[in-house]
Amino acid sequence: MVPTTYFVILSAVLFTIGVLGVLLRRNALVMFMSVELMLNSANLALVAFANARQMLGGQVMVFFVITVAAAEVAVGLALLVAIFRSRHTTDIDQVSTLKG
Amino acid sequence: MSNMTWIVTLIPAFPLLGFLLNTFFVRRGQAAGTIASAAVVLSFLATLGAIAVLQAQPVEPKRIDFFVWEWIAIGNFRVPFGFLFDQLTAVMALLVTGVGAIIHIYSIGYMRGDERPVRFFAAMNLFIVAMLCLIMADNLLLLFLGWEGVGLCSFLLIGHYFDRKHVAPDLVPSGAAVKAFVVNRVGDLGLLLAMFAIFSRMGSLSFYTQSPPDGSPSIVGFLERLVDQGVASALIDLGAFGSIGLTTAICLLLLLGVAGKSAQLPLYVWLPDAMAGPTPVSALIHAATMVTSGVYLIARTEPLFNTAIDEQGWVVAIGVLTALIGAFAALTQFDIKRVLAYSTVSQLGYMITAVGMGAVTAGMFHLLTHGVFKALLFLAAGAIIHGTHETQDMRRMGGLRESMPRTYRLYLVGALALAGIFPFGGFWSKDEIIAHAFAAQYNFTGVLLIFASMVTAFYMGRQIALIFFGKQRDTSYHAHDSEPIMHIPLVILAIGTLLIGAINLPGLHWLADYLAPVTLEGAEEFSLPVAVITLLLSIGMGYLGWWLYSGVLGRRVRPGKEDPAYYYLGDIWTGAEIALGLDWLYQNGIVRPYRVVARFLSDVFDREGIDGVLVEGTGGVFARLGQIMRGAQSGYVRNYVLVFLFGVVLLVGYFALRS
């Protein structure tokens, strides 16, 4: 049986990678993938803790997160397509008109 | 017949109807003039009817008090809207509607070709309504309504030519209108304060006790309360300034109001400028009626002034000084209407002197005669202005006797009356005032009045000579007599000037007897020596004035040049010409500093302070703050995510470490 600590560490590593991906990459598509990575690292942590404490709530929570993530990706990709159509780029730094 | 008291409401109703018709329906000048004149004529007939009804009243003292409705009732502050018609009102109403009607008819001719005749006639009718409201009011508040109403109409009519830059050199119609209005406000403040004092100490604004027909408790008249409850000896506490007698204070405040409306020292400065209005306006408002309302007010509240004996000295002093200053100022003017304006100031001084001495009959007598002959003079002056194509400067006239013979004769009648020559109206009334001054031991006052009378005769001689004698100095126009509609009213007024002295002849004194129930005084004693001396002096001075200005001095008068006498008298002449420079004093002592303060308040305080610091400043602070903070809104998603991340780390860290 793999100790829970390992799962948590893996989750933390994945989450950090996701954060760095969002912060550092300029391609909107890759940023989305990084966001997905963060979500799934959270899922991993949830499942790991649910298993460790033998409680079903964490497992159920993951399903909800997956559902929401799917919806979010749908909306996000739609936005991305709209941005690409008007700007002919997926570089997120080019889309900075909305500033003070 | 004695219960037909409702007839008094018809007197103001007709002009009111005329005003409403002219304001809302009439568009043509001729129609407006006809309606306005008819309204005033009907009002005059109603006045005659009301006098008959008054005569038929069964109870003494005969007085019609027609209660229309309870105007204001707040606790014990009860003001009825009612008309008081007694002998004093009757005489005033006859003058207002009689002379008013004549002037209205004259105006039809005078205003032909004017741009705004309908506005003119509407305002004239409104003026008659307000003036009747003033003299027929049964309480001070209603009187004040009329008082302000005539002020408003005066403003409207002085500014009738508001679109003209000036009507004579240095005379701007809109400015003159505002000046008359503002100077009158100063006087009105006095009247208002007097009303406050009367109500707070005597509990009523009604002149005489009234019992409303609806059965509510009667309102006690303040003039009748003077005799009881120690009102006469009551004092007003002025704090650090000691105390002042109640009636004294009220009389001084009333006197301020009178000085404003009746153009007395120190507030007479507006009347000469009021000549910017059309000439019928000068005749009706600024000679015959409105300016006499101050005299009427003192006559109406005479019991008050009688109680405050000390203050009668003030009234007399102001009257005499005004009579003198006005006479000397009239002596030096070149504008035909300004001569008459200052002459009005001077004659009003006579009336104020008379009522100040307690000689109400003499004052009212002079008010009536002056109302008639000054209206005649003004209307004749209007005929001259009309006939000489808008010439007002007497230096550009001369020799008009030949080209305007009918106007010349009428003007001469008015001038002789004003100069106090037998047998014209002014002789009887002016001498009655002078005789009373000596009889009442105001000897110095009497001497000054005779002196003013001599100056009056002199300036009328000068004016007659300058206008009608010698050669026409400016031949750029062709003078002509006026049409019948303007001429016939003058003839009526001239006949009136001849006959009006008869209403109070020595020995008969009808006017004194008629007014006796109101004035509570006997007939004047006529003093033959005083009359003869005054008459001889006036004739002499009048002849001197005529002789000088139709002869030696008159030959040296040139358009645009100073009066020849100026070269002998210099500054004395100038001092009289500007009427002691009160105008200059107000201009530089009040108006200029006020303008400076106003400019400071508008340009510095408001624009820089309120607008700059407070309004713009508040906005500026937030604009700058936003400028600083806009850096945070970079538009780069990564920045937002970073802030997000820090926020999450902080929150999670906080909750993790807390437990």
**Number of alpha- plus pi-helical segments of chain B:** 26
Q: Return the average pLDDT of chain B rounded to an integer.
A: 87
Helix content of chain B: 55-70%
Biggest β-sheet of chain B: count, sense, barrel? 2 strands, antiparallel
Q: How do the helices and strands follow one another from N- to C-terminus of chain A?
A: HHH
Structural class of chain B: mainly alpha
Return the average pLDDT of chain A rounded to an integer.
89
Principal-axes shape call of chain B = globular
Give the chain pair forming the largest contact, with residue counts.
A-B, 13 and 14 residues
Give the strand content of chain B.
under 5%
Give the SSE order of chain B as H and E letters: HHEEHHHHHEEHHHHHHHHHHHHHHHHHHH
Task: Briefly say what this structure is.
With 100 residues, chain A is mainly alpha-helical. Chain A has three helices and no strands.
Structure notes:
The complex is a heterodimer of chains A (100) and B (659). By secondary structure, chain A is mainly α. In chain A, 78% of the residues lie in helices and 0% in strands. Chain A is built from three helices and no strands. The model of chain A has no long low-confidence stretch (mean pLDDT 89). Chain B is mainly α and 659 residues long. Helix content of chain B is 68%, strand content 4%. Chain B has 26 helices and four strands. Chain B has helices at 7-24, 29-55, 87-110, 117-136, 140-158, 173-202, 222-225, 246-261, 270-273, 279-288, 293-300, 302-307, 309-332, 336-356, 360-387, 400-403, 405-419, 425-439, 443-468, 484-499, 510-519, 528-550, 566-569, 571-577, 582-629, 637-658; strands spanning 64-74, 77-85, 235-237, 243-245. A two-stranded antiparallel sheet of chain B has the order 1-2. In chain B, strands 3-4 form a two-stranded antiparallel sheet. In chain B, α19 (443-468) runs parallel beside α22 (528-550). Chain B is globular. The relative contact order of chain B is 0.07. The model of chain B has no long low-confidence stretch (mean pLDDT 87). The chains are: A mainly alpha (100), B mainly alpha (659). Chain A binds chain B through residues 19, 22-24, 31, 92-93, 95-100, and chain B through 626, 629-638, 641-642, 645.
